[in-house]
Amino acid sequence: RNHWTPLDISMAQDVHDYHHKLTLEERHVYANVLSYLTTSDILAMRNIGLAVMEKMSAPELQIYQARQVYEESLHTWTYQHCIETIGLDQGEIYNRYRVVPEISGKIQIANRRLNSVLRADIDLTDRDELHNFLLAYIFFAGIFEGCWFYNGFSPIFALQRRGLMKGTAEQLQYIMRDEVLHASFGIRVAKQIMIEEDIRPDPQAIAEMWEECEAAEAGYAGYILRDPILGYSLEDHMGQYRFIANRRARNLGLDEPYPGAEPTLSWLDEQANLRKEKNFFETRVTEYQAGGLKWD
Residue 159: helix, strand or coil by DSSP? Predict the structure, then answer.
């Protein structure tokens, strides 16, 4: 059963935590993470609905991507729900992507990649156009959703591990499950395009993409973690980013951009992969499968 809404999760304790327990540094992290995620999910929705879905000919892919558009809208609602429930200044939070250079930098990269394949006259029978589309799709699946989103939730999860902002973190666990599936789907589609069209992305273009995106991530992480918080540092964030980037590159059949990178947040995969045992009288499990049929 892959359906949930942010109203399923109580945010009462989060309101108390934010206003009475979080330090100024932790509030800075919380507000800016939600500001970035809100804008990013809108971009993800535009990418699928306007740049990718119409170019897919297989109906089963279009059906899944229609679901994906819905899920991105649900994620945006979830961030909005958290922001409004906590009582943050909505206009100021939603406008940060315009005025905070470290947030704006990532958004501008995504917009540039998106705009390159939004043109109505794009011709995917042209090898150069197809190569450009492939690069854009690799960016959105492998980096935007596979790295930036996957790593983007971790500062909030670090608060959750200390018993803070647990409602918000539970909301993000639902979203993270969706985003992992989105990235996996996109990576498989990109690999299939390479096989069917006998095309490979230019290694230099890929290397430049990784370099640009790492620099943008480092700038963003340096801003939200300008003052360290307990249990989470800039070094932790960037070390995990490089480790996850290597994983996405391997999944795509590409060379690792950061050979030898080790995980610095060994607990992060647990948020996405392990079943959670919870008290059904208190909350809902994020491993949301209601029933199924096993074929022998």
Answer: helix
Please compute the mean of the pLDDT values over residues 175-203 and round it to a whole number: 95
278 phi and psi angles, rounded to 5 deg: -135, 160
Task: Report d(CA 66, CA 80) in Å as an integer.
Answer: 22
Grouping H, G, I as helix, E, B as strand and the rest as coil, residue 258 is: coil
Beta bridge pairs of residue 102: none
- Whole-structure pTM value: 0.89
Q: Cα–Cα distances in Å, from 115 out to 121, 122, 150?
A: 12, 11, 23
What tokens appear for 131 in the block? 């190569």
269-291 tens-digit pLDDT = 877 654 555 544 455 555 545 44
CA distance 117 to 108: 15
Burial degree of 15 (CB within 10 A; 0-12, 13-18, 19+): middle
* DSSP codes joined into one string, 21-67: TS-HHHHHHHHHHHHHHHHHHHHHHHIIIIIIGGG---HHHHHHHHH
Write down all domains in the chain, each with its CATH number in brackets: 22-273 (1.10.620.20)
Distances (CA, A) of 148 to 34, 74, 153, 208: 13, 19, 9, 16
Q: What is the pLDDT of residue 293?
A: 43
End-to-end CA distance of the chain: 22
